[in-house]
Structure formats: structure tokens, C-alpha cells
Model the fold of this input.
Amino acid sequence: MAFAGSPLAEARAIDPCFYTDPQWFAVDQARLLRPGWQLVGNTAGLAAPGDVLVAEVCGASVLVVRQGDGSLRGFHNVCRHRAGPLLRESCSGLTRLRCLYHGWSYGLDGRLKAAPEMAEAAAFDPADIALAPVQVEVFQGLVFVSLAETPLAFADLVAGIADRIAPIDMAEMRFERRIVYEVAADWKTYIDNYLEGYHVPHVHPALLPALNYGEYRTENSNWYSLQHSPVKPGVDAYGDGPMFYYWLWPNTMLNILPGRLQTNRVIADGPGHCRVEFDYYYTPANRHRADADIAFTDIVQAEDAAICAEVQRGLASGGYTPGRLSPRREAGVWKFHQLLAAAYAAG
Ligand code: FES
Ligand SMILES: [Fe+2]
Done:
């Protein structure tokens, strides 16, 4: 891979084919996104046994189910009979998962309990049948799922974050609202843009006064990149204190501001297109900031979506070859590209 292993001081952007070629989109889905840890929601609706979160991961529907012993288990939302769905939306207090197609029913642990009108089927034992499992982890109230059998160790993905943001604990924030944005750009174009503050003075005139651009820093870890700066005092949408913008491999962002958490899921829903879900969480004391915060983010997000769409057209133009990166301002982009290169090379 031409771009693997370049030191930051020598780094270039990556070839535009990775952003524009549908073949690479398919590679991203199969090798990076499906096996990667995908944020699917939070534990607020999973308090009691039989509570179920239904979520979509890379086009697949999955279930996260609270067990009688308090643990969480994940399954494909796909019946073992003829692939019918078990649930269409999240719900609570279930004792069984009953397929909506022909009524096979499964325990909360995924084992088949009953299959109507199967008495004549030879060598058919429900005890041999169970829903296909998916991996589930929880980090400070946020639920992540991986469709890989042996994904990256989740502890490695988030190593150091809890200590770094302390005394903030994201589990103390309450979900407020989800806003979804459509972006006419490849998911990697959107993430590249997120990973640098270099564009802020040029693209976000309203955001610049809220940030201390001179103190804006990027720190890379094994599996994430952190951008941080102090918030300037007196910005209505936020309280005072540090802000942490985490990007987690491959496509999750945790934007932690005083009293508020905004998560972003970058959903690659087609070549040259992505959908970004913004979930807003607040501490009770900061909930009053929600409307101003979300309205402000709307402005910034529209600016980001517009520039990403223009960049996507530039990448597809035939008039672009990879340019040099700013070591001071684009270390996060470089980190992402290094991880992409490693994942592509791993085949
Ligand atoms: S597909 Fe589930 S019972 Fe038939
Ligand atoms: Fe931006």
C-alpha cells in the first residue's frame, strides 16, 4: 500500500480512489466497518431483564438483550428458520424473542425454545439451535457492537479515555435527542474533515470564537485520535471547561464538552454518501443548554456537510493527486490513514 508507514512529517493524503471507487466501499464495509466496534446507543432502555435495544449495524439488524443475570448479550435479529426478524423496534420486559414470520421463539439467551408445527421434522432438536451471537461492550453507558467473531479487544480501543476525561463520567449524562444529517461524501471524507481543526478558521466563522485555536491540540493513541482545547468562557451553548473530541476507529466520535456529550455515528450507506447520527446527552444541570447547543451544531454541521460534498467532488474530478499534510494540524488525519493502510494491507 503506497501510503502505509509514512512518518507524519512526510505524509501525504491518500489516493482519491479509496474515496470514490465502489470496490473500496465494499472493502470498507467488509473489512473495517462490520468487524469494527460500532456505537449503537445507550443503556438507558436496558435497565431490566428482557429489555432489548434494536439497532442497525452496517445494514444488519442486531439485538442487545439484558439477561436475567444482569449481563448483556447481542444477537443478529435474524431467525434461524428462514431469516425472519424477531423485533422491529426496541422494547422492554420481554420473556421470549418470538419471530415475526412463523413464530419460532427464543429465550433471552438466544436458545430456541419452541418451534410450532415442526413435529414431523426428523432429527430436529430446538436445543441445537440458537440465534447467531454478536459481541457487545458498554463504555460509560454507551453500547457498542461488533459483528466480528474476534474483534479488536474493546479495552484497547478505549484505553486511557476514562482517566483522561475524569471527573467527567459519560454515564451521568442523559440522552436528549437524535439528529440525523445526510452527507454527499464518502464516510472517510467526513472523518478526515472531523480529524483536523485546520479548516475551522476558513469553514466555521461562528465556531472559531468559541475555540481557543492557538491551544487546539491533537493527540493520537493506538486506536483513536483526541483533539482538545479549552472552551472560551462565555459561550452560551456550552459551560466552561475543557472539551475533548475523540474519534474512535473506525467511525465513532465522542464529543465531550462541559456537562454535555454528543456522539456521532458515521454510517457508510453507499459509495460517495454517508449518514451521520448525532445523539445529544446532558447532565441534568446542563439540559437547559440543549436547544442552543443543537442549533449551533446545526450551523457548523451544515458547513461541514457542504465542504465535504465539495471535497468529494474534487476527489472524483480526475484533477487531484494526493497533497501533503500539515504535521501540526493534520496528525489525526494521518493516524486514520495509517490505520486504513494497515487494515487494507491485512487483507
Ligand atoms: S423465519 Fe422465523 S419462524 Fe420462520
Ligand atoms: Fe468542521
